[in-house]
Specification:
Blueprint: H1 2-9, E1 15-17, E2 23-30, H2 34-42, H3 44-50, E3 58-64, E4 71-77, E5 83-94, E6 98-107, E7 110-124, E8 127-136, H4 148-174
Antiparallel strand pairs: 1-2, 2-8, 3-4, 4-5, 5-6, 6-7, 7-8
Helix pairs in contact: 2-3
């Protein structure tokens, strides 16, 4: 158990792993209690402050209804002018340990990716081990730029930056 705790102290920055071609994982230890991290994931007034990945000039949270059957909808624009829509449809909210949703991302040409995302929150004293696991349902006949490897890398980068934003918000919230 002590080696697990020691390893977790090193996770101050998000890291990502890909278990298979159809999966991806982003994990980080957050310096905040699990109940607070859970609230940041499930309360609309908090989601708007951290759910905006790097690389986008303009991110607008158009809808935030986090409950089973509810939807969070983001409009994201890059400096190039390319606009994306991300839609999260929630299936399970198990306070304070798990959130499960389907993520779908679209660009002007149609769907970019779809994934079932499971967010797990594990208490570690006053800190929280956050893991975000995606199982991709690959979109057929999409723009050839969206290879599996490219899509996974952008997903990992986006969620890693979201997790960093979340940690910053929680740092400000705790002080």
């Amino acid at each position: 158990m002590e080696s697990t705790r020691t390893a977790r102290t090193l996770w101050s920055a998000p890291f990502s792993l890909g278990a298979s071609e159809n999966e991806s994982l982003v994990a980080r230890v957050i310096d905040a209690p699990r109940e607070l991290v859970f609230r940041m994931w499930t309360e609309a007034e908090h989601i708007r402050h951290w759910l905006h990945p790097d690389g986008f000039d303009d991110v607008t949270c158009e809808e935030a209804d986090v409950r089973p059957g509810g939807v969070v909808r983001l409009s994201l624009r890059q400096a190039s002018g390319t606009r994306y829509i991300a839609v999260f449809t929630f299936h399970e909210i198990a306070a304070p340990e798990r959130v499960v949703f389907d993520e779908a991302c679209f660009d002007d040409g149609g769907p970019v990716h779809r994934a079932r995302v499971t967010v797990r929150l594990e208490a570690d004293g006053a800190r929280t081990l956050l893991t975000i696991h995606a199982e991709f349902d690959w979109v057929q006949n999409r723009d050839p730029q969206w290879t599996h490897a490219h899509t996974k890398q952008l997903w990992n980068d986006g969620w890693s930056s979201n997790v960093s934003n979340l940690a910053q918000c929680l740092g400000a919230h705790n002080h």
